[in-house]
Design a protein that fits this description.
Largest sheet: 2 strands, antiparallel
Radius of gyration: 23 Å
Strand order of the largest sheet: 1-2
Oligomer: single chain
Order of helices and strands: HHEEHHHHHHHHHHHEEHHHHHH
Distance between the termini: 60 Å
Shape: globular
Number of strands: 4
Strand content: under 5%
Number of helices: 19
Amino acid sequence: MSFNLRSQDRIRDVVLVVILIALGVLVRSTLSASYLIDMDSFYYARKTAEYLQNGLPNSLFMLRTSDPLMSLPTDGSDPLVLNGLSVLGAVVGKLFGLSANTVNMRLGTFVSSLLAIPAFIFVKRRTNSLGGFAAGGLLAVALPFVIHTCTGVYDTDMVLGVLPMCFFAFGIEGILSDSRKGAIVNSIFAALSCALISCFWTMYYAYFYLFVICALFLAIRMRKWLSLALTTVLSILFTLPIHGLETFSDLSSIFKALFSLSSTTSVESKGVFAYVSEMRGLPPLETVSYLGGFFVLAFAVFSIVYLIIKKERSLWVIIPWLVVGVALGIKSGRFLEIAVIPLSVLCGLGIGKLKDWKVVVASIIAVALLVYPVFNAVDTLKNIEQPVSEDLVSGTEYLVSHSPDDAVVVSWWDLGY
């Protein structure tokens, strides 16, 4: 009888996870564009099509000078470019017989929705399926991820949810494990997650340091150092085959990155007439809206207090993670992606810890938590105005008034960098 119950539980959990993934894909597809909408997407799409046609490259890296369509920095340097996303796209295209266009437009919506899986599992292990569903659902429709991973966006953001969540989840499990074997196994998987992040994002070391700093609080509290030390060392060792000796240079550059962030402002890219508004600091109300609204934040605060009373040990990592994410996000809106994960996990843990008659209230709250960010995302995306250069407007107006109706205009268009 107990086997049947466990089997039913597993089937129920699989169904819930599939629903969460479908929810994420649906929201991203609904809020979609029929074309690629930024220069990063153009670049990764172009390289994906190239790899699908000509075969995979020998390395995840390439020099900018090796690509005739890429421009060099004004300082004359020739930095390496990381093409992990394009390699992933080409592999998926070959395995499933998909065209480059299908991969470019659809891969991000699916991969980014997988974030619900580790979130669900992590919270369920500490509470129940309801808590896991709430956490996974919040992340499936989290506004920062939806905007950067909807159909038409083909960028590294698609993996910067699921991989960091795996990194932190395995790392926390390792520290909390009561057995040496559990600590070692979880540390290995955490380090592998960190190495995978480094395949897609050149600033992977930001998550490395964020984990080490946050996990340090838990290690001190638990007086368990094996897993944290092992995760730290293995993360560096697993990254070495990917980045080589540059790994050490990358890890030392965190201070430069933090200094650069302290002076982050809005940037205008004259080459593509794009205004990088996401890098600006957000006012308080906009920050709250971007994180899911006052309701989500209020429930997260309730969860923190409630979980402290319940002595939830993972808070020693999750709260510092949230604080750092919010601090970075206030300075530069793009980094609110970092804060959304611990915020959603906190809400899921809070809902999952509620019991008995409170389950009904928790269910209502869970639905509200899931629905509100969706409306938030719809409202935000509807009101986004694509900035256009006055030169571009006047140029096209001139063409309209000085050319026949059947004229064919051939013009350079930015294909990514």
